[in-house]
Amino acid sequence: MALTIPEVAANARTAANQLQNVTSTQKSQVLAHIRRELEAHKEEIFAANAQDLQLAQEEVAKGRLSASLFKRLDIKGDNEEKFNTLLQGVTDVDNLPDPIGQVTRATELDQGLDLYRVTAPVGVILVIFEARPEVVVNISCLSIKSSNAAILKGGKEAYHTLAVLTRVMQSAIEGVVQDIPFPKDAIQLVSTREHIDELLQQDRYIDMVIPRGSNQLVRHIQNNTRIPVLGHADGLCSIYLDDTADVNKAPGLVVDSKTNYPAACNSAETLLVHRSLLGSDLLTKTIKSLFDHGVSLRCDPPTLQFIENSPVLGSASYKKDQQYSASTDEDYDTEFLDLCMAVKVVDSVEEAITHINTHGSKHTDCIVTETPAHAEKFMNMVDAAGVYYNASTRFADGFRYGFGTEIGVSTNKTHARGPVGLEGLTIYKYRLYGQGHKAGDFGVGANKKAYLHNDIGVDSVKNKFVR
Amino acid sequence: MALTIPEVAANARTAANQLQNVTSTQKSQVLAHIRRELEAHKEEIFAANAQDLQLAQEEVAKGRLSASLFKRLDIKGDNEEKFNTLLQGVTDVDNLPDPIGQVTRATELDQGLDLYRVTAPVGVILVIFEARPEVVVNISCLSIKSSNAAILKGGKEAYHTLAVLTRVMQSAIEGVVQDIPFPKDAIQLVSTREHIDELLQQDRYIDMVIPRGSNQLVRHIQNNTRIPVLGHADGLCSIYLDDTADVNKAPGLVVDSKTNYPAACNSAETLLVHRSLLGSDLLTKTIKSLFDHGVSLRCDPPTLQFIENSPVLGSASYKKDQQYSASTDEDYDTEFLDLCMAVKVVDSVEEAITHINTHGSKHTDCIVTETPAHAEKFMNMVDAAGVYYNASTRFADGFRYGFGTEIGVSTNKTHARGPVGLEGLTIYKYRLYGQGHKAGDFGVGANKKAYLHNDIGVDSVKNKFVR
């Protein structure tokens, strides 16, 4: 009999409590066994996936599922390439340093009274994702590595694949014989859509929600739970060409930020241009390059005029209402996720900053300039997870940042911001070691002790609590 | 004309954006001037406070305000002692290291492409507090030091005092002539009670809420906002006497944890006792000491029987239903905040851990033992902000931890946990410095570059972004 949502959540909490005690070695054994078992059961997984693909094909035929979503459902790929990437991902996570048990602060409060701040798992995380079934493996491995219990809610299109993947991983967890039992409920799958809102009410058991899906999904979750949500609904990134922008850098940076992968959250949606660049070779080259890469522009009156009057851009090669058109106010608040970009002229770096802080989504914004003082001002004052100087917004990514993995990108102002790696799944505990120390013995006055507050030096105790 | 709540919140956002650019020196100048101006206007402040005290006295007479709340309203103290402490507090915050601009990660992604993770202000914080008017000065200074904009919502009892204190601080901010203007709206006061719920809806502008007040206030806030709340509603701390607890440590630790300041959130509310200690000298001494300090106990059947059968405790000196009585289930979920404690026998450290993870509030819990393996298990598996070994729960405090200040204590599982200092008011930004680097140039294949991911070494660039 299927468990109720509160039962699933309570089981996850119990598992999370047990996971507080597992060692690095155990986690590594479990991850290695998960890889082996996934490999051993691959035909079963492919068969389940074929079932999902067949059902999905019918949906595509009825126009109820897009071709791109259909493609993402496939777990095998050509020559099992996608599946092998999935397996390699398990090993990659296994090879990352253990994020738990790291000492980040150590203070001697008194003789024999030592305080350590030590990284610890957040506890129970709920991950809600759409379409790509391999996410269930990736997230399970990240949860295990960070000693968290995960409740996984996938899309109904991948129902059969997700069920087999989860069952294989759970039996792999149980199959590893260890001193401390590793809880099977470290990962649990919840399958049907209607459960989302009930899951979002389990704030008694669930410590964090990570939504991986459409803007609508994320916004729905943010608006319907008391549980902290790690993620972002929008990715409205801007790139600003300052008056001293370098003609050899600007066109490439704008084109890369827009066209490298237009559907990504770190692609640029708005191009801000310093007024002094109107009529410049730099702006002509930048816009021509955007046009030549298939980008259509939504322009404010000055840029529209600039294009129309330009011998290069205003020629017959580029057509109004195809390559460019007049912008509306909404264009500056729109995440196009497509080969489309809003353009606006500003009078100063300050105006660019104000525009971004008003219209941006606090994700990643770039200034192109050869004036370091302008760059510093921009990077100080733009309130975003990533502030870039002469670098493409497309670098905003956990792998590119060197985290080895990415849970997602957060535009939150608390906990974790920007691309989030394993560290985002951790919090810390204070561990205090005494010898019968009483607070009443400290204070001002006769016979009272003062606190030492000696820095123990994190490096000397770094691995003290790695198990 | 008074501003509306959305206007106040929007002004705070504007101020927060400006505050991203202020320097350490400027913040220090502002804090020093605030201290001077508070001192210069002390008679005016005392006069406003006298007004509040007079109105409050009438409320006390009518039985609508408690004597202890009345006492906390006074800002002057004997010989202006309380006021001088307030002034010293401004200087103490000024003397703390700047929490903003600290590099916490630095990676060379490619030649000329350097990534820095740098601490940044959270943005706009809303602080809701009750009674003690000096909190407004303390929080304002902490916000300024951490470059945040603060909206301050105090209790109506301190209306006149808060108004004068805020006005003096705002004009002190404006009075400091600086290159970069320091925004007056860095601190704003909101006064009347009915504004709380409207403030809690300003998630578009406000990044974090910090409630400082009763459990009811905190719970109301947690239940009525989408803004992240930093704090704790309950402080249900436990102390567990393990089978090898030391007779020379246990009684003192239990008494200190319970009686040092019973109304504090870090006082112990539940005493868990290993069954093998029934009949022991240690338990007799511990309970006798609690009785002698005026603590009454709510006992489970085994401890009740132990007390009644004890020649010392069961004697006429200690009376049933005065010093001790039978416990109810609710007693183990109750934060007494008084000289009262629930007692329960457990069979093992595992049972103690399970009890605490079920009934505790994830604040601070202690094990008294001479078996280090039990201590490690307890400290690993108890899911609390503080896990203590032979040390009083009363050490859970920002000053005692050596943070120099305390915003509050958090039982959250994200962002900040345990006693929170200035660091809890910060998040970080990723600053990426490139030279025209495009993401499309990296990847697998011919002519593609690989990321270097060289650790730059945080120490070598620690102060690179301190302004």
From TrEMBL, chains A, B:
SUPFAM superfamilies: ALDH-like
Recorded coiled-coil stretches: none
Any GO BP: L-proline biosynthetic process
Function: Catalyzes the NADPH dependent reduction of L-gamma-glutamyl 5-phosphate into L-glutamate 5-semialdehyde and phosphate. The product spontaneously undergoes cyclization to form 1-pyrroline-5-carboxylate.
Top enzyme class: oxidoreductase
Source species of the chain: Dimargaris cristalligena
Name recorded for this polypeptide: glutamate-5-semialdehyde dehydrogenase
Catalysed conversion reaction: L-glutamate 5-semialdehyde + phosphate + NADP(+) = L-glutamyl 5-phosphate + NADPH + H(+)
EC identifiers of the protein: 1.2.1.41
Pfam families: Aldedh
Protein keywords: Amino-acid biosynthesis, NADP, Oxidoreductase, Proline biosynthesis
Domain spans labelled Aldehyde dehydrogenase: 6-324
NCBIfam families listed in its UniProt record: PRK00197.1 (NF001221), proA (TIGR00407)
Pathway listed: Amino-acid biosynthesis; L-proline biosynthesis; L-glutamate 5-semialdehyde from L-glutamate: step 2/2
GO MF terms, alphabetically ordered: glutamate-5-semialdehyde dehydrogenase activity; NADP binding
Similarity comment: Belongs to the gamma-glutamyl phosphate reductase family.
